[in-house]
Design goal:
This protein is an all-alpha fold. The protein has a single domain, classed as YheA-like fold (Up-down Bundle), CATH 1.20.1500.10. The chain contains 5 helices and no strands. The longest helix is centred in the last third of the chain and has 31 residues. The two termini are 32 Å apart. The mean pLDDT is 93. Pfam families: Com_YlbF (PF06133). This is UPF0342 protein ERX27_10010. Keywords: Coiled coil.
Length: 117
């Protein structure tokens, strides 16, 4: 009997959308977006994250100004309850994805005998 792996992946995607963890991220993101101050801080944070990531990937130097701006935003984020709750929800969702990744990769690990080393 053959299994269509893509059908299974689509069922998993649907289950993820229905999970408590996903629903918590969705609710917290809505809370951030419904608060102008939280929304602005979060947008600035995402922009600086992308800028730093782009610089790192291109080998460009990250300046002290970049670091200072990131630290300033980190301080604002710590004091913004909406964003803090969103980040906690994202961490829980990230753990679920890590767990699923481990499960998905288990057949290959078994095949290559990584458990037998």
């Amino acid at each position: 009997m053959s299994v269509n792996i893509y059908d299974e992946a689509n069922r998993l995607e649907s289950a993820l959308r229905q999970s408590e963890e996903y629903q918590a991220v969705k609710a917290q993101l809505e809370a951030v977006n419904n608060n102008e101050e939280s929304k602005s801080i979060f947008a600035d944070f995402r922009n600086i994250q992308m800028t730093l990531q782009e610089k790192q990937m291109s080998g460009e130097e990250i300046t002290e100004e970049d670091i200072a701006k990131a630290n300033e935003l980190a301080g604002k984020i710590e004091h913004d309850e909406n964003i803090s709750k969103l980040m906690q929800a994202e961490q829980r969702m990230g753990q679920v994805i890590e767990d699923l990744n481990r499960i998905i990769l288990k057949p290959l690990q078994d095949l290559y005998g990584q458990d037998n080393q």
